[in-house]
Design brief:
The chain is low in regular secondary structure. The chain has a domain of 89 residues. Helix content is 10%, strand content 11%. It contains four helices and 16 strands. The strands form seven sheets. It has a three-stranded antiparallel sheet with strand order 2-3-4. A three-stranded parallel sheet has the order 14-15-16, with no helix packed on it. A two-stranded parallel sheet has the order 1-5. Helix 2 packs across helix 3. The longest helix is centred in the N-terminal third of the chain and has 15 residues. The chain starts with 7 loop residues before the first strand and ends with a strand. 44% of the residues are buried.
Length: 507
């Protein structure tokens, strides 16, 4: 074929199933001879994947290079002894995948199978043929995630679990992705006895969902994902949730350019001491909820490369990261974020947090945002816009070491919940709430509970408690307030000092 000028080849459907001839007779003849010699089959046309292999070798040109998968080409390369260079030997070939019409061609143990997966009779025919010719038994499963493909899986390796295929950890087989699969949803979820997982033969080039892929793999101490191709993945939510024995995780090869959800991705990875995400492209990410939830061993986290312009949820993002001593979020664009509740809850080693660059104009919920930040001494919220916030309950709960808190920018006109808002702020001596409009507030129970050093609470004529239904222990333990009486700690004392209450009207 090397002497043939490289013509443009048009494929023409022939009489044989999934076979073709070309518009160049001499090429058709030559290809038929090669196919007949290699397979011993009758001559009624050439399977389309052969053309793809030859096109890849440069022997012919195709009108469309997107008709066939790399796996199909690989099958034909094996037939014809392709001497293609090995420049990509470290990369796995693409897995067999159907075309837009449902046509699928793949090989198992040297045998090639073709079918349209949309037809039950075709699936059953191929399954029967495979199970006759193979020791391993195969079956079909319809994905309910990813692209919702019909996938062919090894029944010894995988089992159907509700809506997903689940790896059988007691099979002791090296995992291979099911044929035609686009989803790894929950695939290794709950494999609690696995300490290591060999994924060297696991081809992910067609996968779009890795949601909860390694969820709750508690015993995993090592996980090599260096061969993973994630260029098509859109969902990595909860991917490593609960991998509590992993001390390190190298994701430097990950392509996240299409990913929309990374929420809970590393939640409960409580043994991770460091995590390099500098290569992460988060341009399309919408959810970052709980991404580092309870990563209690992380001491540092560089997120300066994160693009957060499309993110709408950051709730519990760093919650429970008790070993973090510093966190620079000055590069964060939060203009579209709606949820920030418990965002820094339990960051007990953070001493300062500058959020002056945060745009919070869309935020509706800030409950528990800084709860249990027990070491915080400085907190810059000077640019906070809270005009859409309805919940501030527990917002500064247990911020033991805060001595001052500037809330002058706060608009509370829509806030309904303020219970536990400042409870256990044991170092605060005064707090200025003179701009607080509390006309919509429904709950103030435990609002200042155990603020032992608090001697002045400033209010203005915007202070309105007519809607309060819950106020138990509102001032309990606030022994430094004027007129304090430990028997009177409810809403009845939420009035000016001049009227026998505990509050001071700012003049």
């Amino acid at each position: 074929m090397k002497n043939v000028a490289r013509p443009i080849v048009t494929l023409i459907k022939d009489g044989g199933k999934n076979s073709y001839i070309t518009n160049v007779p001499e090429i058709t003849k030559e290809l038929n001879n090669r196919y007949k010699n290699s397979q011993g089959n009758s001559n009624y046309g050439v399977p389309f994947y052969i053309y793809n292999a030859l096109a890849k070798k440069g022997e012919i040109k195709m009108k469309s290079m997107n008709l066939f998968s790399d796996a199909e080409a690989k099958s034909s390369e094996a037939l014809f002894g392709d001497s293609k260079s090995k420049e990509n030997t470290n990369q796995l070939p693409s897995a067999p995948i159907q075309d837009e019409n449902g046509n699928l061609t793949f090989s198992i143990k040297g045998r090639t199978y073709s079918l349209n997966v949309n037809y039950k009779e075709e699936r059953e025919r191929v399954k029967k043929e495979i199970n006759i010719n193979s020791i391993a038994k195969y079956d079909w499963f319809k994905e309910e995630t990813g692209e919702n493909h019909w996938v062919l899986y090894n029944t010894k390796m995988y089992e159907v679990e509700k809506i997903y295929l689940h790896y059988k950890e007691d099979s002791n087989l090296v995992p291979i992705i099911p044929i035609n699969a686009t989803s790894c949803y929950d695939m290794f979820c709950g494999c609690k006895s696995l300490t290591r997982l060999d994924l060297s033969n696991f081809t992910t080039s067609n996968v779009i969902s890795m949601e909860s892929m390694f969820y709750n793999c508690k015993a995993l101490t090592q996980l090599d994902l260096s061969n993973f191709n994630t260029r098509s993945v859109t969902d990595m939510g909860s991917m490593f949730w609960g991998c509590e024995s992993l001390t390190q995780l190298d994701l430097s090869s990950f392509n996240t350019s299409q990913v929309i959800d990374i929420g809970r991705m590393f939640a409960w990875c409580k043994s991770l001491t460091k995590l390099d995400l500098s290569n992460f492209d988060t341009n399309k990410v919408v959810s970052m909820s709980e991404i580092f939830y309870n990563c209690k061993s992380l001491t540092q986290l560089d997120l300066s490369s994160f693009d957060t312009g499309r993110v709408t949820s950051m709730d519990e993002m760093f919650s429970g990261c008790g070993s973090l001593i510093k966190l620079d979020l000055s590069s964060f664009d939060t203009s579209n974020v709606i949820y920030m509740y418990e965002m820094f809850s339990g960051c007990s080693n953070l001493t300062q947090l500058d959020l002056s660059s945060f745009n919070t104009s869309q935020i509706t919920n800030m409950c528990g945002m800084f709860s249990a930040c027990t070491a915080l001494t400085q907190l810059n919220l000077s640019n906070f816009n809270t005009n859409n916030v309805t919940a501030m309950d527990g917002m500064f709960n247990c911020c033991y070491k805060l001595t001052q808190l500037d809330l002058s920018s706060f608009d509370t006109s829509k806030v309904v919940y303020m219970y536990n808002m400042f409870s256990y702020c044991k170092s605060l001596t005064q707090i200025d709430l003179s701009n607080f409009d509390t006309s919509e507030v429904y709950r103030m129970d435990d609002m200042f509970y155990n603020c032992q050093k608090l001697n002045i609470i400033y209010i203005s004529d915007k202070w309105n408690v007519n809607s309060i239904n819950y106020s138990d222990d509102m001032f309990n333990g606030c022994r430094s307030l004027p007129n304090f009486n430990e028997e009177k700690t409810n809403i009845e004392m939420a009035k000016p000092v001049e009227q026998g209450g505990y509050l001071t009207v700012k003049r």
